[in-house]
Specification:
This protein is α/β, with parallel strands linked by helices. The chain is 34% helix and 15% strand.
């Protein structure tokens, strides 16, 4: 039997200088790259799915572009799929952020709010709730689930499906996932029940 999957699509590159901390800043994405990603996804996504997307415009515009090519796909914004809120750090190059604040965040990754924004524990809680709904949807319908979101959401999913989360270990900088789909790319995650191992395979 084929395992239902979560398609986690990352938005196209944003229109910001490289190295900028942007988090929940509502930045536009490159329009050509967005259109290219939409065309590729429209050609491979299964029929009649719902595109759950972050309400930030870089994700919403990609969802709309896919739906324009595939009218069988419905759209559903979900604020739980937003990127992490980096507070006062947003819009500033990472290289210019106070070193002591970054170090304090790294030492208590789960609980310190970077830039006074959102602690990782809070982001994990909202992504976990969305993942629970995705599992319930799979159980009810047997169809794949599509999220159009951000690199931080992809890392949260990897953590939540990994061995350390199942062992109830707190996230730390040494073991936090580094990999995420490139802008305009996606990964597949097997959606099993919460007690079973999960896995991911990037496809582009």
């Amino acid at each position: 039997m084929t395992m239902s999957r979560l398609w986690l699509v990352r938005h196209a590159p944003v229109l910001a200088p490289p190295g900028t901390c942007y988090g929940q800043l509502d930045l536009a994405a490159d329009s050509h790259a967005t259109a290219q990603c939409a065309e590729e996804l429209a050609s491979v996504l299964p029929h009649a799915l719902v595109l759950h997307h972050s309400p930030l415009q870089r994700c919403e515009l990609l969802a709309l572009a896919i739906q324009a090519l595939r009218p069988d796909l419905a759209l559903k914004p979900d604020p739980r799929l937003r990127e992490m809120d980096f507070g006062r750090w947003e819009g500033i190059p990472w290289a210019n952020l106070p070193r002591d604040e970054i170090d304090a965040w790294a030492e208590q990754l789960a609980d310190v709010a970077p830039g006074g924004g959102e602690p990782l524990a809070a982001m994990l809680a909202r992504v976990a709730a969305a993942l629970g709904d995705a599992r319930a949807s799979v159980q009810a319908s047997g169809t794949d689930v599509v999220w159009i979101a951000h690199a931080g959401v992809a890392r949260c999913v990897q953590w939540l499906l990994g061995d350390r989360a199942r062992a109830s270990l707190a996230p730390c900088a040494a073991h936090w996932p580094r990999e995420a789909p490139a802008p305009g790319a996606w990964a597949h995650y097997a959606l099993r029940d919460a007690s079973s191992p999960g896995g991911a395979a990037a496809v582009r």
